[in-house]
Amino acid sequence: MNDSKHAKYRRLLDYCKTLPPTRTAVAHPCDESALRGAIDAARLDLIAPILCGPRNRIEDVAKQNAIDIGGIEIVDAPYSQASAAAAVNLVREGKAEALMKGSLHTDELMAAVVSREAGLRTARRISHCFVMDVPSHEDTLIVTDAAVNIAPTLEDKVDIVQNAIDLAHALRFPEVRVAILSAMETVNPKVPSTIEAAALCKMADRAQITGGILDGPLALDNAISLESVKIKKIDSPVAGRANVLVVPDLEAGNMLAKSLSFLAGADAAGIVLGAKVPIILTSRADSVTTRLASCAVATLVVQARREAAGRAVI
Length: 314
What we know:
Layout: H1 7-16, E1 22-27, H2 32-43, E2 47-53, H3 55-64, E3 73-76, H4 80-92, E4 98-101, H5 106-114, E5 127-133, E6 141-144, H6 154-170, E7 177-181, H7 192-205, E8 213-218, H8 220-224, H9 226-232, E9 244-246, H10 250-264, E10 267-273, E11 279-280, H11 288-313
Parallel strand pairs: 1-2, 1-4, 2-3, 4-11, 6-9, 7-8, 7-9
Antiparallel strand pairs: 5-6, 5-10, 10-11
Helix pairs in contact: 1-11, 2-11, 4-5, 6-11
């Protein structure tokens, strides 16, 4: 890992080495990238994987690519949907504290997660967060939602924002500053995202959203550039200093995250929140650094939940 380029992720991984590994059900790790990603994370003690999928295929992939899976538990499942169901069942039985996507389609894994009979639903809306290490930007950025909710309603966005705030606390952000993004910084009745942004901010004022400082609507430049804020004379504790960026819809989020990745050299660790356990979403295009960071993020979420449960008992 290039420490200068990935300084934020380096600190994240170093911190997670001090925590116990997260018991993680890995759904269908049946190609090299999926299997190697899980085993690399296990070698760093980020996760303690349980591999769910066709045993013969997993063992063949390991042998063909010289991946040592000795001592790793395998739950035999014949095909991808069965692998997802087996991984979810491990969570329901208390044998796993996180899920990790293997070489199956995201839709297959999420179908098992949201199943009303045997899934992992909670009262919260499930949403995705990218934890982005942008080399040219001082702060780690959380971008949500760029992968799960296509056109979220205002009600959905309450949970999307709260999930992101909770993630920021798990990541030990000293202060959570949430920018509700739109194309402008003023409320315009003709632009629905500006009205929703204003409503979300008022909901935070009324403690319907807690744990963060919200402001919006804000255009992207107003959210992350203090120079832009100075020019436009915006008086806000969030503007220019946001570390959580809430986008209007999936298309905007996907474009923002990929712009940061491909034009600014950012890495984007992906995690899904709102289910009973965090879900590590990786892609075959992800770098080794990004895969490890995604596992580390899940470990911090699990640790935060352990600590909260401990406080509740005491």
